[in-house]
Specification:
The protein is built from 14 helices and nine strands. With 299 residues, the protein is of the alpha/beta class.
Length: 299
């Protein structure tokens, strides 16, 4: 099928990247993907995309390169070096990094890409695996207005709330704030769950009525079933939220903002990870509260 849509290279086909890239294919985009696991490249091909054997091969003919990898070191590993994106993408290509990384990494990437005539947007997302699958993500973008305008149609195939937040790095700063709010919110919900259970209240009924009032939140809506069933299959892993809490506490320190509650929750996330729960969903903060409260924790 030939169309006038830009050719897309997608690097990073994990929990978020796989459904997001498939939503672009559904929207009519020609997507070539690369990731470290062959099974995930095969999944993209089965959905109508193309697999590549390397980053260089994936990006060579792409008009737009999208990256979705876990952290700053991964972005640097795929962007730089002779086999990386900057050395192999064509001049004039647009690189949209949708990973959640430090604002400074995004600023540096944009500067280095400019020397290769490659435009960059940082465009981290919120909404988790469900939001990726349903294409209802919030996408917070940093970069130039003209590049944001050019990327809009493509981003609209991935998310619902798409906002340019300022210059390079701004998307990452807003994402860091998002992760702060989400972690504190999950922690508050987890404490409420243990309090309610130890009080002998019908937990399901209690969470329903709480979610209908001022205590209601997207977090509670999305994570209520996790709390009720103690199902912590990862939509967003504790390991990644640990990384994000490091980003927000470091960035806040750099600008002189105090995060007293955020710092406590960052330590609770770190302790959960140290107890071997890093691969679980971030709603597993409930397990930390259970341990502190002397409740038995499911293996």
């Amino acid at each position: 099928m030939t169309n006038n849509l830009p050719k897309v290279a997608w690097i990073g086909l994990g929990i978020m990247g796989s459904p997001m890239s498939e939503n672009l294919i559904k929207a009519g985009y020609d997507v070539t993907g690369y990731t470290l696991e062959q099974g995930k490249i095969d999944r993209l091909a089965a959905a109508g995309g193309h697999g590549a054997g390397s980053i260089a091969e994936a990006v060579r003919n792409a008009d737009v390169v999208i990256t979705m990898v876990p952290a700053s070191p991964h972005v640097e590993a795929i962007a730089y070096g002779p086999e990386g994106i900057l050395a192999n993408a064509k001049p004039g290509a647009l690189l949209i990094d949708m990973s959640s990384i430090t604002p400074q990494t995004s600023v540096d990437l944009a500067k280095n890409a400019k020397e290769k005539d490659i435009r960059v947007l940082d465009a981290p997302v919120s909404g988790g695996e469900a939001g990726a699958i349903e294409a209802v993500l919030s996408i917070m973008v940093g970069g130039e207005q003209a590049d944001f305008d050019a990327a809009q149609p493509l981003l609209q195939a991935l998310g619902r709330t798409i906002v340019l937040c300022g210059p390079h790095g701004s998307g990452q700063t807003v994402k860091a704030a998002n992760q702060l709010i989400v972690a504190v919110n999950i922690q508050a919900c987890a404490e409420a769950v243990v309090f309610l259970e130890k009080s002998g209240v019908d937990l399901s009924a209690a969470l329903d009525v709480l979610n209908g009032g001022l205590a209601g939140s997207t977090v509670l809506t999305r994570k209520k079933d996790n709390f009720l069933s103690r199902d912590f299959a990862p939509g967003f892993r504790i390991d990644l939220h640990h990384k994000d809490m490091g980003i927000v506490t470091d960035a806040a320190r750099n600008v002189g903002a105090a995060l007293p509650v955020g710092a406590v929750v960052a330590q609770l996330v770190a302790s959960l990870r140290a107890q071997g729960d890093g691969g679980l969903d971030h709603s597993a903060l409930l397990r930390a509260v259970e341990r502190l409260s002397g409740q038995p924790v499911q293996a």
